[in-house]
Amino acid sequence: MKNNLQQFKFPRYRTYSWIVPLIILLVLVALWEIWIQLGDIPKWQLPAPSAIAKELVASWSLLLHHGYITLQEVLAGFLIALVSGLLLAAAIVRSKILERAILPILVSSQTIPIIAIAPLLLIWVGYGLASKIIVVALISFYPITVNTIDGLKAINSDMIAMMKSLGASRWQIFTKLQIPTSLPYMFSGIKVGISISVIGAVIGEWVGASGGLGYLITYSQPLFLTSRVFAAIFVLSVMGIGLFALAGWVERLMLPWYYAEKRAKAINQQFNQ
Q1: What's the pTM?
Q2: Which has the least CB within 10 A, 20, 43, 85, 117?
């Protein structure tokens, strides 16, 4: 037993999991830079990473201004999608009639390209923030709703039977059992939704806007300001990664028991090996 404990090593996957992707990213950027410097590629066609970095420094105030507009659209639209998605998921799970009536419509709605809806929203609500917020809400709504529905349904029937035998009402089963069990599923949908919400904001700005990073990209392309386009894309990527990381941090804060269980399983697997 003592030898087993001495040989056992706690898993360090999470501690160093970011190193390999970072190394790969740095290698790709270096190869990109070398390719541009050695090749005869026009700067307006594909700028080097060093040129993009210079553009980030030179246009930081412009990127910050338009990035703030895009972030407003993302947060407002995502909040609407989160509240409406959670409420609809709870209603669908608690009502078989609603599930049969709404769930097929919800699934089939995803066959409609969001890029086709965006121009109609401009006609209906105008060029202001409202149309972009609606696009963000529409694109974020589905993963949040569907993942929460799956979580609310992923309940052990034996646990439900035990709670009923103890006299628990449907509301108590829902609040004490179904909601806590569904939280990991819900956060999976939240992390997906908040990541693609950035895409929704950019789509709305492409169709028609007077501000935002999507608007800045559309404005810069005809002027062959390719470095600025890549700089805006970089800011959008950082925004999406940051929002995803924020959702993950909130998940860890709210679900310590879930991650403690995952760590315990990882330790048991390592020990059994």
Answers
A1: 0.82
A2: 20
